Amino acid sequence: MRKLLILLIIVSVIGLLLSGGSYYAFRVFPHNALQEAETRPPLDAVIVPGYPSDSGRWSSLMKARVYWSYYLGIPSDHIFTETRAEHSTENLYYSWHLAKEQGFSTLGLASDPVQSIMLMPFANSENFDVRYLPIDFAILKDIDKTDPAIAEQRAFVDSFRSLPERQNWWKRLKGTFGQQIQR
After folding, report:
1. 109 - beta bridge partners?
2. Cα(41)–Cα(136) distance, integer angstroms
3. 133, 34 contact by CB (below 8 A)
4. Which among 39, 88, 114, 124 has the fewest CB atoms less than 10 Å away?
5. Which residues on neighbouring strands pair with residue 130, listed in sequence order?
6. Per-residue pLDDT tens over the stretch 60-117
7. Three-class secondary structure of residue 131 per DSSP
8. CA–CA distance, 26 with 62 (Å, rounded to integer)
């Protein structure tokens, strides 16, 4: 009985930590970051990380990122593409350098809250001055969304093999943490 009680306490504590972390990641962090962004001068450019397309359909995560960038007011004629990245850290690294080459100085990162939080240590280690604009799903839910067709033939490459086909789990994880960036 004592072991069961200890197990119940441990599970309860873990549950509280996870729910508190989720609340922070999906409510507090996006709200605070957006409030801070509104008090500062406008950004020159915003990095919106990509996400793999599967069979011509948008992933819900990529759709959320695109609609969030729309909400933030990024005009379509100010969209540049970076095509080398295969991991989130590479999205940030290559896009940051592309933006600097284009003459932009103040940069933001518009992505989901989890990816934004995961990229913070990498951005700090690279001394990237990036403002975080994590998706506030409470705002996003009120935006009318469609499912635009993807012109995948424009991006189709015969010899392409997906990341899971080319790299094992461990190598992909290392890429996620920025250990495969070609500098």
Report:
1. 47, 132
2. 20
3. yes
4. 39
5. 107
6. 888 888 888 888 888 777 778 888 888 889 999 999 999 999 999 989 999 999 889 9
7. strand
8. 17
